[in-house]
Amino acid sequence: MSDKLKITFTTINVRNNGEWTGKGELYWELLVDDHQVSSRPVSNPLKIADGETISINQSYPVTKQAGQSLTIEGSVSERDNVDKDDFASFADAYTGAENWGLGTHNRTLRDGHLDVTVNYKVERQ
Questions:
Q1: Sign of the dihedral defined by the CA atoms of residues 102, 36, 87, 52, in that order
Q2: Whole-structure pTM value
Q3: Most buried among 9, 64, 102, 111, using CB within 10 Å?
Q4: What is the pLDDT of residues 84-123, one digit of tens each?
Q5: Number of folded domains that form the chain
Q6: Whole domain around residue 23: which residue ranges?
């Protein structure tokens, strides 16, 4: 028996944009089973202030069989021309025994002054 699922990356909440003052320059990569669902390249980062929310709303459908796993992962970074970029990542894996992680998930990522939450949901189709 197979399960049809839809994984949607909804938002990135920015508590601290990685800069001491002013707007940070964020870039990211969000994946489902090694398939890129959403990204913003380091060559074109998004300027964003503390407290702002980045709307993603990008989905990826998958069909899973018993015994397989569902991997959801990503990274968010802040470009810095002076020092090393702040970089934080996450990786979640779910199985059918865990009901594929159905529901809403909030992953807090921190490095240096960067503090963001990546929000995603797993739904049956």
A1: negative
A2: 0.95
A3: 9
A4: 899 999 999 999 999 999 999 999 999 999 999 999 999 9
A5: 1
A6: 2-124
